[in-house]
């Protein structure tokens, strides 16, 4: 699987049990961010039922399992089939290889109606970024793919080939905050009929005349926007959050780690107001919104200096935790 050699020797000081995953360190696949902060925030009940919506390399799941006793259970979701290779040999764990937007449906299938806590560590794993053929990274060539779930039809190449100029403009603007989103969309629509756009290199070459500012930063924003659209990340997050109202027991906790402001805003508004709308800044507004959640901290928890030095991916991580009332 072509992991980078340097990753194999990286030391994650949060990892107290490197023998998880049949002797292979999970951080070869992905280093969990805000590990201690997340496990502490969940206030794990030893015989409770927990859900890790984003299993990935299983780093956070390992932390949860260490706090559970023999009666505890952990249901883990991941829509990427690659994550299955990180599953521990542990009878307390149930793996659901599906999108977490179907959380309640699959919990019911496993005869679970309510749980003590839910974790979601959103976005893509380092493994997904590091595999050129998955098409997520600007560092490699490969198919312009970006699907977390390979069973899905829509990929990034199809979006570039088929979306209208307005659709492209809006997605680059909203999901990537690309400064010249309108120009970029117009350029793609004008040029795509002359050039095939099936690979990362072809796509980078197609858009090179309109790249603005620092090329790496610009491309990262464009790629982020495409990735969010391909995987309908905002739609899946909203659907999952709404299901937490029924799934999490009173007194139970939900901990969500986000990596960009759009996601963080959704989580913040959901915990605070019970929906996804911005709070009305009108001081005379008297309507009190109903929420079933009590945020554990006012501000999101971010990475410590030590973690920032050790794991650059933690730079944009924000953890929000709330307790079900
Ligand atoms: C940031 S990684 C999680 C890493 C994990 N916490 C760990 O410690 O290794 C995110 C993972 O969630 C998965 N994922 C993202 N969105 C998902 C969704 N809507 N449904 C299911 N899995 C999803 C990705 O495939 C990826 O493996």
Fold and architecture overview:
The chain is built from 13 helices and 7 strands. It is of the alpha/beta class and 325 residues long. A 7-stranded mixed sheet has the order 3-2-1-4-5-7-6, sandwiched between helices. Helix 3 links the parallel strand 1 (49-52) and strand 2. Helix 7 runs antiparallel to helix 8 (181-191) and helix 11 (233-247) runs parallel beside helix 12 (261-273). The longest helix is centred in the C-terminal third of the chain and has 16 residues, at 215-230. The structure holds S-adenosylmethionine. S-adenosylmethionine (SAM) is lined by residues 30, 32, 54, 56-60, 77-80, 83, 99-101, 121, 123-125, 148, 236.
Structural class: alpha/beta
Number of helices: 13
N-to-C order of helices and strands = HHEHEEHEHHHHHHHEHEHE
Strand order of the largest sheet: 3-2-1-4-5-7-6
Sheet-strand content, in percent, reads 5-15%
The hetero molecules present are: S-adenosylmethionine
Please give the radius of gyration in angstroms.
20 Å
**Low-confidence spans: pLDDT under 50, at least 5 residues?**
1-25
Distance between the termini: 45 Å
- The amount of helix comes to 25-40%
């Amino acid at each position: 699987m072509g992991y980078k050699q340097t990753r194999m020797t990286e030391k994650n000081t949060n990892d107290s049990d490197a023998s998880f995953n049949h002797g292979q360190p999970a951080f070869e696949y992905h280093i969990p961010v805000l590990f201690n902060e997340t496990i502490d925030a969940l206030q794990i009940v030893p015989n409770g039922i927990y859900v890790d919506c984003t299993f990935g390399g299983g780093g956070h799941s390992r932390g949860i399992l260490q706090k559970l006793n023999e009666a505890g259970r952990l249901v883990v979701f991941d829509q990427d089939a690659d994550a299955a290779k990180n599953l521990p040999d542990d009878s307390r764990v149930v793996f659901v290889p599906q999108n977490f937007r179907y959380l309640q449906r699959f919990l019911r299938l496993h005869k679970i109606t309510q749980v003590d806590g839910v974790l979601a560590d959103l976005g893509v794993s380092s493994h997904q970024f590091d595999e050129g053929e998955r098409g997520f990274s600007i560092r490699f060539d490969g198919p312009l793919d970006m699907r977390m779930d390979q069973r899905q039809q829509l990929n990034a190449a199809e979006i570039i080939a088929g979306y209208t100029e307005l659709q492209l403009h809006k997605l680059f603007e909203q999901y990537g905050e690309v400064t010249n989103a309108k120009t970029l969309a117009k350029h793609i629509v004008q040029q795509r009929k002359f050039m095939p756009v099936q690979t990362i290199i072809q796509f980078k070459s197609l858009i090179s005349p309109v790249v603005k500012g620092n090329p790496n930063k610009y491309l990262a924003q464009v790629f982020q926007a495409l990735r969010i659209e391909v995987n309908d990340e905002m739609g899946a997050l909203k659907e999952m959050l709404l299901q937490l109202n029924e799934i999490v027991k009173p007194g139970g906790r939900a901990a969500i780690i986000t990596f960009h402001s759009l996601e963080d805003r959704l989580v913040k508004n959901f915990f605070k107001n019970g929906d996804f709308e911005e709070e009305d800044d009108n001081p005379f507004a008297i309507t009190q919104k109903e929420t079933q959640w009590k945020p554990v901290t006012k501000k999101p928890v971010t990475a410590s200096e030590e973690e920032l030095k050790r794991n650059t991916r933690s730079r944009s991580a924000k953890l929000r935790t709330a307790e079900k009332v």
